Amino acid sequence: MATTTMTHENHDETVKDGIVLIDFWAEWCGPCKRFGPIFEKVSDQNEDAVFAKVDTEDQQELAAQYGVTSIPTLVVYRDGIPVFGQPGALPEEALKDILSQVRGLDMTEVRTQYEAQLREAGRS
């Protein structure tokens, strides 16, 4: 599956179901240019997940919403819950490993922890 472009307008619909990997990047960013082909290649090998790219120059509001201060930054969702976030370009094997770990998550446990965090933050 090819990557998709994520914008503020399609964000909520994109992350609500399944596994979604989001690459925050910019055209001028050297590490982003090195990570981009890796992200595309792993996308082509994993059609069960959505691979989305956010151009931080075009989507500054969305980047700010995530607190992105360094690019590339990878954020991963599963079933509408953010389960991973990390700045920095990753090698192919590390990206595949993250995807494997996300697939193996016990989502009942994750959902319970996420709801508890929301309650503590007063956002339930």
UniProtKB/TrEMBL annotation:
PROSITE patterns, per database record: THIOREDOXIN_1, THIOREDOXIN_2
Alphabetically ordered keywords of this record: Disulfide bond, Electron transport, Redox-active center, Transport
Organism whose genome encodes this protein: Kineosporia corallincola
Family note: Belongs to the thioredoxin family.
Name of this chain's protein: Thioredoxin
Highest taxon above the source species: Bacteria
Nucleus is among the record's keywords: no
Domain Thioredoxin, first and last residues per copy: 1-104
